[in-house]
Records
---
Amino acid sequence: MLEAQLARLAADAARLRAKHLRDLIAEPGRAARYTHRAGPLLIDFSRQRIDDAALETLGAIAEASRWDDARDAMFRGDIVNASEKRPALHTALRASESRLPILAPRNVFAEIGTTLERMGALVEAVHTSTDGGFDLARGITDVVNVGIGGSDLGPRLAVEALRHSATGHVRCHFLPNVDGHRTADLMRTLDAKKTLVLLVSKSFTTQETLLNGSVLRKWLGNAYGGDRAAADRHLVAVSANVEGARAFGIPAARVLPMWDFVGGRYSVWSAVGLVVALSIGMPAFRAFLRGAALMDDHFRTAPWRENLPVLLALTGVWNRNALGPASECVVPYHDYLAELPSFLQQLEMESLGKQITPEGTRVAQRTVPVIWGNVGTNAQHAFFQALHQGTDVVPVELVGVVEPSHALGENHDALLANLLAQAAALALGKTFDEALAETTRGTDAERRALAAQRTFPGNRPSTTILLDALTPESLGALLALHEHKVFVQAVLWGVNAFDQWGVELGKTLAKAIEPVLTGEADATRLDASTRALIEAIRSRR
Ligand code: F6P
């Protein structure tokens, strides 16, 4: 953003600082004006510390950024990932379910269609215990998704969130980390001969995935008394590096492609979502794509004042750049959405955690806040104390589901009541006088001291997102909503949402440190603190 735009935001913020959310919420018609719907999703922004004039300022900044041209360029497949000279065509992955004309290049769309068909055939083969032309092992009861980052978080969230849509053919497990504890656990508890291992890695160079893949391949081999061919029939790869997967020993028939034009954290809609399709079946996976396509269509057509991803982006920019909080908390009121904060951490922080523009200059404003969170109501009994009374204000995104997928109405009403209560408490707070009126015991000084501690400042912003029900469609829409929010923020902040150079340095250092740790290389090239810790580890081995 430009200095002049930031100055306008600062002026609006100065006006808003003098207002309390109690007063803003009391304005006639505000709740209706600040609530919008797209398909199965409703968003209520009325508890953001923003007024119509500030929203107009943000809208004017968005319009000046030509966010809509940038959006169309992304859908068309222009090079929007400049540092890697690639398009970002995750929207093409679900374009088959869109009602609008497909903007993605024809060849890209055709390749995606073919891959979806192969995915469907593979799911069918596993579910019906047939070969399906994949030369697959039969009798699969368990699937292990070996992949990390985007090759784990989206698929894991979707499998967990859509447990009630699972066909029941297979149990799904996730193995992202290089930490051998989980790997060992899985090898101890699963029957190798009934397990399908999915090696999911866009690059097929990721240390964690390749190491776990090798360990599991040995485990499969042992189960077949060293018959490598039999063991390999339990392996399927998903990768943009088909050659790499082949070099690992997985024949082309069992490699499903993904592509350079899809970023890892945007890839759950591709064959990276194979574990999701194995869990819920291909028709439900298509419904998941349909939900995302519905949000794509909305994003492409709604004016900014009604455009959910744009409004979510703008209120995020408002909080970060006008009011200042450095973190944002996500609290899903649904146990099956427990992985949502982790998914959004990668989506938002890996996409927007940058300070340099594609032109190599420093951005003018702060970028992504720290994203964190946990499910409600658990979180209420852990960190909500700080959200209500801590010295820092943390904007909260509350996600609820109207219709549960169980018959325990009392539980669900209690859950939703808690969500609504927290949003209200954060916004309204409790004044000193209200707290004093409730404090009856003790001397006057004691009463006043206690009342001060029982005062809630309120004025703490939140956005509430309600899904009609947790279905493949609504989950697809929810994730696409956040993808597009991130895109709009990237346009406003002037950063590339589709690269992630910041993860490289640590990977390089780990490669240099490992041989020192194992005693195969000397430590002289490492810094003093690292050397000392390696010494401490080695002395206890
Ligand atoms: O290290 C970060 C990252 O590159 C993510 O962007 C990506 O989702 C993850 O690693 C896994 O990468 P891959 O799918 O290539 O194994």
Note: The longest strand covers residues 396-403.
---
Amino acid sequence: MNADPDCIFCKIVAGQIPAKKVFEDEELIAFHDIHPWAPVHVLIIPRVHIASLADVVPDHDALLGRLLGLAPRLMKQLGVHNGFRTVVNTGRDGGQEVQHLHMHVLGGPRPWLRG
Ligand code: AMP
Ligand code: ZN
């Protein structure tokens, strides 16, 4: 399945709900988290609906590599020069609330609200 009509991040991909986008290309979108835990808090997601990191298959390896590699570029672009944190919550025990694969990228001066 390429998109899930009930998935909030698929709706962002489709432009059906707004997001403060900081990056997009043919495979990935990045946007500011609506409830930031840190001065800079963005989410990087694939356009394709993959429910979680537990659902990836070897065909996704290149996509995952690009997703991770985008984080340092975005942090530079957003003025984060003192390190950042990447988080992928997976499944119920992993605390995942939105069932569309996403990576949190958090940066900026501490203290942070969370993380
Ligand atoms: P997780 O617990 O890893 O599934 O995190 C989901 C994240 O998505 C949370 O940090 C939410 O604040 C964020 N979020 C949910 N809905 C939206 C939205 N419409 N736009 C931006 N971020 C969102
Ligand atoms: Zn989705």
Note: The two ends are 32 Å apart (CA to CA).
---
Amino acid sequence: MRTHLPSRKVIAVLTAALLATGMAACGNSDTGDKGDDGKITLGFSQVGAESGWRTANTTSIKEAAAAAGFDLKFDDAQQKQENQIKAIRNFIQQKVDVIAFSPVVESGWDTVLKEAKDAKIPVILTDRSVDSADKSLYKTFLGSDFVKEGRLAGEWLVEQKKAATGPVNIVELQGTTGSAPANDRKKGFAEAIAANPNLKIIASQSGDFTRAGGKQVMEQFLKANPKIDVLFAHNDDMGLGALEAITAAGKVPGKDITIITVDAVKDGMQALADGKFNFIAECSPLLGPQLMDLVKKVQNGEEVPARIETQETTFTQEQAKEALPNRKY
Ligand code: GYE
């Protein structure tokens, strides 16, 4: 019987292989290793639960992550940037494979994004963007063009009021102060209505994207301004809150005051179909499937486009009546 002792060469190869395996196990995110269960771990920091849009967005993300077989670590920041920064730091510590988040405000992210980059964890922005000058701090931004939404709302109003000979008084309910959708929708709307000097924004204040905020600020607007012709609300929820204030003030929403909003969630579409709202610029919250696709690509080291824009439309009252029965959220 002959026994084969391993040659020196074979031992050297085996040792090298063992070392390589050991190294891979240490550097989870470096090597694309997916942890013990082989699943991709995604850390997601959500803004909060401030609106119907946000609830639909959270559902979309949770469902898509489950369908993709990811291990999702989900954190709700309750509309606070400090909570989001904490959550991202936790994700870094836990060595998740990919971090995705919807930044509540635009500014103040460079430090934590740099920490993720140093830890070699790719970051994807979804829904809202950041104003960081260094674009290498994140891989891509998936979301809507908020300036366009504001512009579409303004253009519709310009068309409606083209015969106006006197001043048309507009009040504006802004979204969360410092957030990309509030900044951009305000900008797009203002640019569009500049086409008609009769259209004037006489008051503009944040209602924080919530129904309660919309109601409260609209009450103040109504007290301070005897003649309000138009309300532009940066989302459906604030518009829905404002409806209560308008009705309580003895005015008919959709008739005495023209109401334009953004989002097109089910409750907003219902108000539009009922004639209480007059126009909605759509903003889609169903970002989950596209986001998971990007997570997979980024995890595999594939190149992804720097910006992916959501496809959206607008709704009149008639169009809302048609679309409502099939509206999922
Ligand atoms: O329009 C609003 C939500 O960031 C696009 O946030 C999102 C906005 C959405 O609270 O309803």
Note: The chain is about 45% helix and 20% strand.
---
Amino acid sequence: MGSFRQRVFSGVQPTGNLHLGNYLGAIKRFVEIQESFECIYCVVDLHALTQPVSVWGGPKELARNTREVTAAYIAAGIDAKKHIVFNQSQVPQHAELAWIFNCVARLGWLNRMTQFKEKAGKDRENASVGLYAYPNLMAADILVYHATHVPVGEDQKQHLELSRDIAQKFNNDFAESIAEAGYEDGFFQLPEPLIAGPATRVMSLRDGTKKMSKSDPSDLSRINLTDDSDEIVRKVRKAKTDPEPLPSETEGLATRPEAMNLLGIYAGLTGQTVEMVLKDMGGCQFSAFKQALIDVAVDKLGPIGAEMKKLMADPSHIDSILVDGAARAEAIARPIFDDVKKIIGFVRA
Ligand code: ATP
Ligand code: MG
């Protein structure tokens, strides 16, 4: 005991408007690392509830969006047979461990979370308790599987650090009991974030200083995975730029967030670094660069959007993937959570 398999866990919320940032920062990476890890990919429906109902859209939308994220996973190339794809609410150990973590994490830790501040906005008194405790549930999502690696976009880095703090505090608080249960090096291993590549933080097409987000009221701010080629053309053409041609070195991008963003997107879609793109495109006018970006975006996203539509036409097939995945996920989570109960001292049969 005490040795951990290399296991990946990550998730996407079913909050609608899946976009290019979700693809480049998360889903595309999920696909790539399937070769090297055992992977668990979740549709985190419990997390969706942390926002007001008007944002996640109510029961029908939640179900639809849950299936849509699943369709995006499969269409992008995740193998749900070899790995695990499921929705969070079907595996009760997530919420149960989250309660325990509510009692491990400190108020002071959560008070520092920038996502809560951004999402709660000015009307903090009116934010849900769930939005505040979101990072504790996220820690439970990861640790209930003893996951070792977590591919996420840059915006989730702080939450991952909190997951590590929670794992560490649990290991300390219950050190004696953990050792008695036969775990020599602590019960939870500290999970490693996997945040890499040129597009870990894709920005809004309308404002290079704001994250591309599902909840931005302007549809022009993002490219959705279900956008058709006409919409992609329109959005890229309207994307904010500056009057200068592209520089030939990355240093020239320091004060040009919109140029940096479009280059990061291009690099992410073509599997290059921004440096490599600038070698080819340095000196180009935006009009020419945007055309190249449109071509590659249509080429890469078109087939994914088309496959998502096909999959969405058969909801019962999607549901069967989720049910099968949930059973396999719970088979991993249950024994780990049973050990948590034993370690804490909950009396059980
Ligand atoms: P919401 O506004 O509802 O939080 P979101 O777009 O942030 O939506 P999430 O479901 O919270 O999407 O995040 C899913 C994954 O996508 C996470 O790993 C997150 O880090 C990543 N991600 C989200 N937005 C971006 C972005 N703009 N660039 C890169 N990665 C992103
Ligand atoms: Mg988010």
Note: The mean pLDDT is 96.
